[in-house]
Design a protein that fits this description.
Helices cover 12% and strands 9% of the residues. A hairpin with a 6-residue loop joins strand 1 (18-20) and strand 2 (27-29). It has a two-stranded antiparallel sheet. It has one helix and two strands. By secondary structure, it is low in regular secondary structure.
């Protein structure tokens, strides 16, 4: 399992509040540690997912949608 590479703590002092992580899609707050929601995550095999789960429901829905 891998952790999301985004680090919102590096955005301290920037004129930004909440934003969607460009990697996992979860909402983040600048200057705070990265928080990943296992139901919303768009990463495969993210360390936020429970053991044995490789895709969040959100990622499965995203991949199965009609373009």
């Amino acid at each position: 399992m891998v952790a999301c590479p985004e680090d919102p703590e590096k955005l301290c002092g920037q004129p930004i509040g909440m934003y969607h992580c460009p990697h996992c899609g979860c909402m983040q707050v600048a200057c705070c540690r990265h928080v990943c929601d296992p139901d919303e995550c768009l990463l495969e095999d993210c360390d936020c997912l429970p053991p044995g789960v490789h895709k969040s429901p959100n990622l499965e829905a995203w991949e199965s949608r009609d373009p």
